[in-house]
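hiii so um. not sure if this is the right channel but i have a protein structure encoded as tokens and i wanna go backwards to a sequence. like what aa goes where. can anyone help
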């Protein structure tokens, strides 16, 4: 048999074996949706049709490149939407995978509470958002928004670091030289912007041997609510000499309130 025919035959055999294996697996372990645990018919899918539909809705739509809220690009003035025009923002731009609702909200919450395997569904969404941003090619460092060490110890991982580790970027490295030096209170989504800002004021610092000076940084976080945490992180990084600080988040919550 000539080489190309042999190659094709091997490929065919591989496909048949894979299909048979998937079918067998499917019979033994009926596939369930990674989000709602409902039955799914397609063995190669991670989510059911309903969850995929919700996810597509959550991740569709234009947003303000300055604050991440829903905004039509025709409503932007000098790159800012009406909601953030008067707001003091220390980061230079933001990319988001979607809005904090329905399937995306449920998955992010589960991801924070032990379901780390959901990174396989969530990271491609974050990757697409980052690659579609206007700062993608400028980034030198990816900086996960840090948890206080006591919280990381309790949870066992930092969900933002798990996402950052799986992002695809030709050059950017991950830096963990931004640290949370004060444990902040967990706040309800409905907490006001001034309350959130007070809660995180002075909560972050950089390690002594950091290499942030002159660098273009992209913060990585799971949820942006009022932006107080990202703002405080960006302020701290700029005080340490960072050139530009952008942000990438899985979801933006609190669309209506400032
Ligand atoms: Zn589902
Ligand atoms: Zn805005």
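sure thing!! here u go:
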């Amino acid at each position: 048999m000539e080489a190309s025919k042999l190659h094709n035959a091997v490929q065919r055999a591989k496909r048949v074996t894979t299909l048979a294996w998937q079918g067998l697996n499917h019979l033994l372990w009926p596939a369930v949706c990674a989000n709602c645990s409902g039955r799914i018919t397609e063995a190669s899918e991670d989510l059911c049709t309903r969850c995929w539909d919700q996810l597509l809705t959550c991740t569709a739509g234009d947003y303000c490149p300055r604050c991440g809220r829903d905004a039509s690009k025709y409503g932007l003035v000098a790159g800012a939407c009406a909601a953030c025009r008067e707001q003091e923002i220390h980061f230079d731009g933001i990319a988001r995978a979607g809005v904090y609702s329905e399937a995306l909200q449920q998955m992010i919450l589960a991801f924070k509470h032990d379901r780390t395997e959901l990174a396989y569904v969530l990271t491609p969404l974050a990757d697409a958002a980052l690659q579609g941003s206007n700062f993608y090619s400028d980034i030198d460092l990816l900086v996960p928004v840090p948890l206080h060490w006591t919280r990381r110890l309790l949870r066992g991982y930092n969900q933002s670091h798990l996402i950052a580790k799986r992002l695809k970027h030709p050059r950017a490295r991950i830096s963990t030289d931004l640290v949370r030096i004060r444990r902040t209170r967990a706040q309800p989504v409905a907490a006001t912007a001034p309350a959130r800002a007070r809660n995180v004021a002075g909560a972050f610092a950089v390690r002594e041997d950091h290499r942030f000076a002159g660098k273009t940084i992209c913060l990585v976080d799971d949820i942006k609510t009022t932006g107080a945490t990202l703002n405080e992180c960006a302020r701290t990084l700029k005080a340490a000499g960072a050139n530009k600080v952008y942000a990438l988040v899985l979801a933006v919550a609190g669309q209506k309130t400032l």
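oh and The radius of gyration is 21 Å.
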